[in-house]
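Components:
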Amino acid sequence: PIRPVPAFERIGEENAFAVLARAAALAGEGRDIVNLGIGQPDFRTPEHIVEAAIKALRDGEHGYTPSIGIAPLREAVAADIHRRHGTQIDPGRVVIVPGGKVTMFAAILMLGEPGVEILYPDPGFPIYRSMIEFTGATPVPVPIREENGFAFSAEETLALITPKTRLLILNSPANPTGGVTPKAEIDALVAGLERHPHVAILSDEIYDQFLFDGEAHTTLLAYPEIRNRLILLNGWSKTYAMTGWRMGWALWPPALFEAVRKLSVNAWSCVNAPAQFGALAALTGPQDCVAAMVAEFDTRRKLVVDGLNALPGVRCATPKGAFYAFPNISGTGWSSAKALANALLETAGVATIGGPDFGVHGEGYIRLSYANSAENIRRALERMGDFLLSAR
Ligand code: PLP
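Structure:
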């Protein structure tokens, strides 16, 4: 019989997609499901972006583009970073990819191998660990703690670095916690990393515009001292409500650039041409659509946090970024967060994700994405309240 090589036995999943499929199946049976499971904006992509992609199709942009993306888009990425952060980046090292995930895949594939250690946030985006395991590298979880505002602790992170550490994965604002790592902590982390020049850094900043309560984004691009070993991951999926377009970008250091360029030629040839023109319009067009979406998320954030804190046995810290709430459910009597998430879906018709799907330190929590209408959030909270009371 044919079968995949053993590495594929180690590859994991993103349970959000399984929950999405289960919620759709239940809805197909006529059940009314409120989906707070998947992490994608419920907004449509702004119209001027859609129009730009349609125009590109009409104008005959039907062929391959350069494998790392069209030059105007790579330049627009650099201009956007300069506009938002006042930081110069070389557009020649920007690589356009089919979704932010592809940068993660490429970076971990390029640096992971048996015998090396890769540090990643736990709880964190599940694909980090999955890909680390795929390469045979040793996954080393960096605990992300509620009592620390779900921020990285520089001290705790640096203490986990050994001579075998090859890569450190950072994510702020963070999935699944909504945590934002303060600038002072990032300053301390970078200062410490200067003592460990053998460690590359993958900074996943895909939620960089989803910040609340006056928080400002601290990008790792602001630290020239680590630029030569930094891979910066970002993209259009969340910021411009473009998850289905599959558009991401990354800045790669010179030492890894040729490897990712060759990978792009081998694996995807180039990113969908009309989508690149849509993404170009996103960066060069009006930005008020982003501000409007973030303002709407802010309203929902307050709704979801207040609602969760009113539920019996639930305690929810106020997330400062992204669009997730990560309530502590250890007071509900449910010792397994996955079992609670499952019961909420099957019995109460509310899709959420159990914290353990994001790592061992996620036990005792569930993740809710508040990228859903205020009305649906209210309905979900009401159902959760009824369910928790009846299940007592
Ligand atoms: N990084 C984080 C932390 C995410 O939460 C996600 C999507 O959920 C991604 C990256 C991937 O984004 P994309 O859809 O652009 O591949």
